[in-house]
């Protein structure tokens, strides 16, 4: 997701906040501070209603973060790496690198989120009881009770057996364990997800017609579930088509390692770069810093070639989707955000080469005809709308056998 604010790291996992969270925080603060709290507990100063509603919204945000962080930490414990945890408009997303290796791991990774939400609901219920015993202020008591009920609702909703909810992933784990077929299990879970999405959408629409804007939230959630279930269904079908193919099998652009402190002149005066490979820019201690294309190097002006080092010229690793050589293609594609960019394949931390966007689209088109065209239609440069069959790669990259600007 673009437009995020970093929140730091927990156990090496990046936490970030999407700008859309401001919308849900503002909505909760407004609904509680302007309507629900004054109606439920009249007689307090307006400032206290706004303070209580703000505290409720922020604590709910923390609760959702704990839910997603639990998924991420258990995934790490089962051998998966986690790119980041992002909080956004409709909750949170833990971005895992790869798929659970076994049904048991899938069950634990999926089940821990609702479990944590249930524990948090219990904590707020206990806090409500303690506040009542201590005869605390009414606003503090009702906020604690409200958060307890909300977290309980989050737990129950997420346990519904429908993808992409946690309950859908639990259902997938159960079917996977019984049948031994991961992707067929995923297809079953997405069917229930589509059914849930339609029910939420229809129920929300009826509520809007009969009761007002209260049903808008259900409609938004229904749309999200429908879209996410469709995306997971497509991924499951692609997984069935690709089988156990590994990303390392499709490397078509090699990577030549070069020290990062070399100047552009040092390389241009050597015979390197004539074999169509790219340069893996590496520090003297072996740390990979980025990737540099021969074309980018040749574009450096003559007057700057002695000043610019390869480290300054290289595209950083953050601009690539990275994957280990033995990682399944389906796992890589699940986090392949921009279909214009190449995939950087690593072998024990060293750059093994690139899988260009054209190669990925060719592979997908061979296994699932029509998919590449759909991916192009949704790509930022709108390649399919111009009559192309594949999205264009970035303009400063050149690949062997490919015409410049193709």
From TrEMBL:
UniProt protein name: Zinc metalloprotease
Entry note: cofactor: Binds 1 zinc ion per subunit.
Residue positions binding Zn(2+): 67, 71, 166
Domain Peptidase M50 stretches: 56-128, 142-193
Cellular component aspect of the GO annotation: plasma membrane
GO biological process terms on file: proteolysis
Active site positions: 68
Residue numbers spanned by region Disordered: 368-406
Membrane topology note: Multi-pass membrane protein
InterPro entries per UniProt: CBS_dom_sf, Peptidase_M50, UCP006404_Pept_M50_CBS
Keywords recorded for this protein, A-Z: CBS domain, Cell membrane, Hydrolase, Membrane, Metal-binding, Metalloprotease, Protease, Repeat, Transmembrane, Transmembrane helix, Zinc
Location of the protein in the cell: Cell membrane
Top-level taxon of origin: Bacteria
Keyword flag Ligase: no
Species, as recorded: Actinopolyspora mzabensis
GO molecular function: metal ion binding; metallopeptidase activity
A Pfam short name: Peptidase_M50
